[in-house]
Model the fold of this input.
Amino acid sequence: MSMIDHLTIRRPDDWHLHLRDGVMLEGIVSPSFQHIGRAIIMPNLVPPVVRGDDARAYRDRILKAMEKAGLETSSAHRQLLMTIYLTETTDPDDVEAAAAEGLVHAVKLYPAGATTNSDSGVSRIDTVIPVLERMADVALPLCVHGEVTDPEVDIFDREAVFIDRVLDPVRRRVDGLRVVMEHVTTDDAVAYVSAASSGLGATITPHHLMINRNHLLVGGIKPHYYCLPIVKRERHRLALRKAATSGDPRFFLGTDSAPHADHTKEAPCGCAGVFNAPNTLSCLAQVFEEEQALDKLEAFASLHGPAFYRLPPNDEVITLTKQHEPVRYPEKVDTEAGPVTVFDPGTPLYWNVT
Ligand code: DOR
Ligand code: ZN
Done:
C-alpha cells in the first residue's frame, strides 16, 4: 500500500487536444488549459486546417479566446503546437514552410470518413507519399488516426487492421518518417509500438485507461463514453494501463479531449468524443496509483511527449494531492453552443491538482 499523498511533477503537456472554434472554443478554452502546458491542437474543424495560413489564423483565434477568458498567453508553457490536416492535395512546400516557421509541429492523417469531420481526409495513401517524404526530410512528425474505414472491417478491429494495411507499409516505404499513433486502444497497437526500433510513439487517453466496452454498453448505452477509436474489451484496457505506466518512452499523454454539445451526443446518431480536460490529471493519478506506478506519472504526462517532439520539458511544476473526500469537478461545462458533459469515469477520484 502506497502512503504517498503528494506528488510534484513537471507541468504536463497534452499531445492531442481538440479546441474547436467559435463559441465552443470560447466556452471550453479555460477548462482545457487548467493544468496542462503545451498542446498539440487538432485540425479537424469545418472546414479543416489544411494550409499553414489556416493554422496561423486558427492559432490567432485560439489566442484571442484565451485572452478573452483571462488566460495568460505570453508564457512559453502555454505554447499552441498547431497541426495541418493532411489531404490528397497537401503541398509539401507549404507544410515545410509552416514547420520551419515554428508554427506547425505535426501533420494529422485522418483516413477519409474515419471520425468527426474527416471527410477531407486521405482515401488513397499513395497520393500523400511526397508530403510524407518531405516530412521525413525535415523531421516533422505524422500523427495518425489509426483506423481503417473499410465497411467490411468490424469497428472493434479497425485499429489492428490499420496497422497491417496502412501504418506498417507506410513506415517501411517512407524511411525516417516519425509517426505518432494517436489514442491507441488495443494490445495490438501496444505490441506494434513497443516493437518499433525508433521513430514511432503513441498517445494514450485517460478514458481508454479507465473504461472498456462494457462500461459503454452494459445497462444502457452511454453516449458520453462513445469515442473513436471505440473503447475495446478489458484485455485491451489492461494492456494500455501497462504501457502507460511502464516507463517506456514511446507512450505519452494525449487526452483527445473532444467536446461536443450534449444534444449532439445524446441523439439517435450521436457524435464521437469524450470531454475529459477538466479531470485528466485526477484520472491519471488514480490509474497510476492503482497500478502502483505513481513514480512513472511524470514520465508519461510530462517527459516522454516533449522528448518525442524534440522539445524541452516544462520547467514549471504542479503538485497533485490525494484528498480524503472525492474531488469535485463540474458535471457539465456551459458554452454558448450548449452544455458539454465532462467525462465521468464512474468512480470517485481522490487526486487533485493543488
Ligand atoms: O472520439 C473522437 N472524437 N475521435 C476522434 O478521432 C475525433 C474526435 C472529435 O473531433 O470529436
Ligand atoms: Zn482526436
